[in-house]
Structure prediction request, 143 residues.
Amino acid sequence: MEIRKVRFEDMQHVYELAEKYLREDYTFDLFLKLWNFSPDGFLVAIEKEKIIGFIIGVKTGIDSLRILMLAVDEKCRRKGIGSALLKRLQFNFPEIRKIYLETRVDNIEAIQFYKKHGFKIVERARDFYTDGGEAYIMEKILF
Ligand SMILES: CC(C)(COP(=O)(O)OP(=O)(O)OC[C@H]1O[C@@H](n2cnc3c(N)ncnc32)[C@H](O)[C@@H]1OP(=O)(O)O)[C@@H](O)C(=O)NCCC(=O)NCCS
Prediction:
């Protein structure tokens, strides 16, 4: 398994993973914009030339990073791929003190995933998603 920065030719596969595994509707154009905005924070995991996961993180301040999306192909889960993507993202931004994200309150696997990586729930946000769903805001202070 290899982790590297996303390339234009990966974008359609990333979009398909997002459509399949993330519950918000994102436009293809958004992925291109995020790539342009945060090239070091948009990473893919590849196995046998196939994209099996991706993560998108953007800097939101001098020392803070927000994870916008993370997904791993369901056939490849519980093998450390999500963890490897998160670690590489952190590695690419050594100046970051705080990483945070939002996840649906019923997304047990994501909540467990982030807890395992030292994130804590700091807030509950009502009406966060377009369907009115609630989110937990989770954060990790690195140093
Ligand atoms: C969350 C997600 C990215 C995790 O990816 P992954 O490659 O399976 O993660 P890892 O293999 O690195 O898992 C690390 C840890 O996360 C936790 N975890 C992952 N999946 C879990 C599950 N289904 N139930 C409970 N804990 C889980 C475990 O603590 C796991 O460690 P363990 O396998 O040693 O017990 C993946 O489940 C996913 O793509 N979910 C759908 C999209 C999504 O919800 N994204 C997050 C939106 S914020």
User: Anything to note?
Assistant: The pocket of coenzyme A is lined by residues 21-22, 70-72, 77-83, 101, 103, 107, 109-110, 112-113, 116 (CB under 6 Å). The chain has four helices and seven strands.
